[in-house]
């Protein structure tokens, strides 16, 4: 048996079903070992996208996704997808090939020290050179990827090691389990938190990304906010932890220059942060006044932040600690009136232009049509760009992890690969990827992968020929823009070239007609929507007027 075969057996023992990647000369022994394995290797068109797909599989299944590259340029290509898993907190195992161990000291063809290259962006990494410890290395890799916070682990397999013959007596280790954090806070911590909360007249709840990791947390958060009658907001990656149509919900927070909901933090006399991860939206953006914080999470923040002053904290099992805290709370009967005033303003703005028949299409109308079509547990995957902010503020999610964003690394190009991963994780759910034309063009080659896998995903492309999110910021900050225009292919003809259906929306009323047709297909479908992003600047104008008036 070769070392590569033992490696594959270890992956099988960990429950791996798929590996996404690109073949190369130095990983041929590993690929040959997969030939006799229960693991299916899926060839992708770019290593970055392979890591994106595997990372999404990890996020949605709760077990690390696995991706594979060759050495040199394959390993460098895979780094962006790895960094995405690291900052978006998706469990991922990254396997890169490497040149023979003796040649690494000679400056040989395509050799880069990938261990050192990957070290800053992964939780842990190792080069497999000692055969007896290989099963432990693989088991440790899965354990590390699943420890909090979730993230990426990198394993390097040199070519000469992979091809080495060994005895079959070395056994793979049992599957690593995703161990739930069950630690309960001390009684004194509950007493401190309860006292601080009871004294607050205008508490505000901020739900963060980590609250989306376990379904039990959603029920616990819902019970808590309803007992306290505290309004809540959530970061992009926490959408749906509590339903977006709940009467206490204000608005999703995360617009770079602030939104109406940011005003709630100025109103609040206490902020209760549940599962908050600063990687998404730093406290300086929402708590410049340094309002006191009750911190409820798996762990204490790693770094001191003057804009995140912790008055009390509950560390450990989020759901369990919240339930115990709620039991100590007195039932309140109504939300503070100033929050209701703010909610009314937010609701009015969110409804603006939803019925617009304008062409090019306005973001609000497109999102309204999408929400009306998709069911509560269907998956909307957002790529990165101006459309991401519109989806975050306009699209109500009713369940956690049904409206999915990259808001850690926030890498353009994730939309199509993530949709592939999402559909493979949940083949019975409808999956819609919304991409800007800029972001879609960065990963469009994976359309062939989706076609080859016969995945009936739908990709909606918002077309305007500009990097509109950057233009939005340039105009707001500098009064002018540059370097934001580019050309596009005919996306309908592009779809045809890949052998799939393509639709171009020519008027607003067609959106609701095309979506059912698109999802009736048995293969991928592209939908092109020409979008009017002058709505970005209209929103900025409204927000500017609001900020100058509301807090007078």
Describe the structure in your own words.
- This protein folds into three domains: 3-162, Rossmann fold (3-Layer(aba) Sandwich), CATH 3.40.50; 187-344, 3-Layer(aba) Sandwich (Rossmann fold), CATH 3.40.50.1220; 353-540, Rossmann fold (3-Layer(aba) Sandwich), CATH 3.40.50.970.
- Helices cover 39% and strands 15% of the residues.
- The chain has 22 helices and 17 strands.
- The strands form three sheets. It has a six-stranded parallel sheet, with helices on both faces. Strands 13-12-14-15-17-16 form a six-stranded parallel sheet, with helices on both faces. Strands 8-7-9-10-11 form a five-stranded parallel sheet, covered by helices on one side.
- Strand 16, helix 21 (511-519) and strand 17 form a beta-alpha-beta unit.
- Helix 3 packs parallel to helix 5 (79-88) and helix 14 crosses helix 21 (511-519).
- The longest helix is centred in the C-terminal third of the chain and has 16 residues, at 534-549.
- The chain is globular.
- The mean pLDDT is 94.
């Amino acid at each position: 048996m070769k070392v590569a075969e033992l490696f594959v057996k270890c992956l099988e023992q960990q429950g791996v079903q798929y590996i996404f990647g690109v073949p190369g000369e130095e990983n041929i022994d590993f690929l040959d070992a997969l030939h006799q394995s229960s693991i299916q290797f899926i060839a992708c068109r770019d290593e970055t996208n392979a890591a994106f797909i595997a990372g999404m599989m990890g996020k949605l299944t709760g077990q690390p996704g696995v991706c594979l590259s060759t050495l040199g340029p394959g390993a460098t290509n895979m780094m962006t997808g790895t960094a995405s898993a690291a900052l978006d907190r998706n469990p991922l195992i990254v396997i890169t090939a490497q040149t023979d161990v003796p040649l690494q000291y000679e400056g040989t063809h395509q050799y880069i020290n990938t261990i050192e290259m990957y070290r800053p962006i992964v939780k842990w990494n190792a080069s497999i050179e000692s055969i007896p410890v290989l099963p432990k290395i693989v088991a440790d890799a899965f354990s590390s990827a699943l420890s909090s916070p979730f993230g990426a682990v990198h394993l390097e397999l040199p070519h000469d090691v992979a091809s080495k013959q060994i005895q079959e007596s070395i056994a793979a280790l049992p599957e690593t389990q995703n161990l739930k954090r069950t630690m309960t806070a001390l009684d004194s911590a509950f007493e401190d938190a309860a006292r601080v909360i009871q004294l607050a007249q205008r508490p505000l709840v901020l739900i963060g990304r980590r609250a989306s990791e376990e379904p039990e947390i959603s029920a616990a958060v819902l019970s808590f906010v309803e007992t306290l009658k505290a309004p809540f907001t959530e970061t992009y990656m926490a959408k749906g932890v509590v339903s977006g149509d709940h009467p206490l919900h204000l608005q999703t927070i995360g617009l770079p220059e602030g939104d109406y909901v940011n005003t709630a933090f100025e109103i609040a006399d206490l902020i209760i942060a549940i599962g908050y991860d600063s990687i998404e939206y730093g406290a300086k953006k929402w708590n410049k006044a340094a309002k006191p914080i009750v911190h409820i999470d798996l762990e204490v923040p790693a770094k001191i932040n003057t804009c995140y002053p912790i008055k009390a904290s509950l560390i450990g099992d989020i759901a369990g600690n919240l339930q115990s805290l709620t039991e100590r709370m007195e039932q309140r009967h109504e939300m503070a009136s100033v929050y209701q005033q703010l909610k009314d303003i937010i609701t009015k703005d969110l409804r603006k232009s939803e019925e617009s028949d304008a062409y090019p299409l306005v973001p609000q109308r497109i999102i309204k049509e999408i929400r009306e079509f998709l069911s509560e547990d269907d998956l909307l995957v957002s790529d990165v760009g101006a459309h991401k902010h519109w989806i975050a503020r306009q699209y109500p999610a009713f369940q956690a992890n049904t409206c999915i964003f990259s808001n850690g690394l926030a890498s353009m190009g994730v939309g199509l690969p993530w949709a592939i991963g999402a559909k493979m994780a949940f083949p019975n759910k409808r999956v819609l990827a919304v991409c800007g034309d800029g972001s879609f063009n960065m990963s469009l080659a994976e359309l062939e992968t989706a076609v080859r896998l016969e995945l009936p995903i739908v990709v909606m492309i918002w077309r305007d020929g500009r990097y509109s999110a950057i233009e939005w910021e340039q105009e707001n900050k500098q009064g002018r823009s540059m370097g934001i225009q580019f050309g596009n292919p005919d996306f309908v003809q592009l779809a045809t070239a890949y052998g799939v259906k393509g639709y171009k929306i020519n008027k607003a009323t067609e959106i609701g007609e095309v979506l059912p047709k698109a999802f009736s297909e048995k293969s991928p479908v592209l939908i092109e929507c020409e979008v009017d992003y002058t709505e970005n600047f209209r929103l900025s104008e409204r927000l500017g007027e609001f900020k100058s008036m509301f807090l007078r």
